Amino acid sequence: MVPLQELLWFVSVLAVAGAVAGFLAGMFGIGGGAILVPVLYQAFTLLDTADSVRMHLSVGTSLAVIVPTSISSFRAHYKRKAPDLALLKSWIIPVPLGVIAASVIAAWVSGSVLRIIFAVIAVLVGLRMIFNRESWRLGTDLPKNPLRAICGFFIGLLSALMGVGGGVLNNTFMTTFGRTVHQAVATSSGVGMLISLPGLVGYLWAGWGNTDLPIYSTGYVNWIAVVLTIPITLFMAPLGAAAAHGLKSRQLETAFGVFMLIVAGRFIWSIV
User: Fold this and answer.
1) What is the pTM assigned to this prediction?
2) Residue 140 scores a pLDDT above 80
3) How far apart are CA 11 and CA 225, in angstroms?
4) Cβ–Cβ contacts within 10 Å for residue 162, how many?
5) Could you name the domain of life of the organism this protein comes from (predicted)?
6) Helices 181-206 & 249-271, crossing angle to 10 degrees?
7) Collapsing DSSP states into helix, strand and coil, what is residue 50?
8) Quick check: 225 and 47 in contact, CB under 8 A?
9) What is d(CA 66, CA 72) in angstroms, rounded to the nearest whole number?
10) DSSP assignments along 91-109, one per residue
């Protein structure tokens, strides 16, 4: 039986995480996972969740929350006709395939490996966004297939291993090939749908039957956290999208980079 005081603290942490994650989902097109995963990890620690499943549970629960959040964020950006719909259509198959591969990997690797993956990618992306230069561009337009499909596969793979909605990597991919950060952010909200839906199913499968999971968990998804977090993220996502369109491109890039370094620092600290 979980003590009432710890349960109330758990709920409070999730409420704050949901508000921040929802706002960032709209602002950065990241689905909120980059903030939800580290916060959920700490929250599950409060409930003495087994270390062997804590990171997996954080990632899987984050993907479940991202499903409605990414849909809400995409609708807000779609009304402004901002997403690259052609890119999204070309990734309908490659991105989910990457997510499926990530689910298989997650069923076998340890929580420490998932934390290392999260931290390394977050550092690289954060530094790239902060010190972004025109000379770092690889082209003036997105690559054609098969390279485009390959990129989509790895964006799906790595994002699902991190428990994020794809914006972390897709923002970098699109801006590297000459697209504006505003269009990248808007398109990333659509990529979040391609990642979170198969990711939810995959993590349910990967953790099915694990006896170390806390109450009200199915596979690597904790439904208490999902139910508490979703309403708040849905409310905050449109506000974040509106804020994104009020910032200059360089301001948005720098803010995104700083945010990623902060998240990476939290996980590096937990590993050390």
Assistant:
1) 0.80
2) no
3) 8
4) 29
5) Bacteria
6) 30
7) coil
8) no
9) 10
10) TTTHHHHHHHHHHHHHTTS
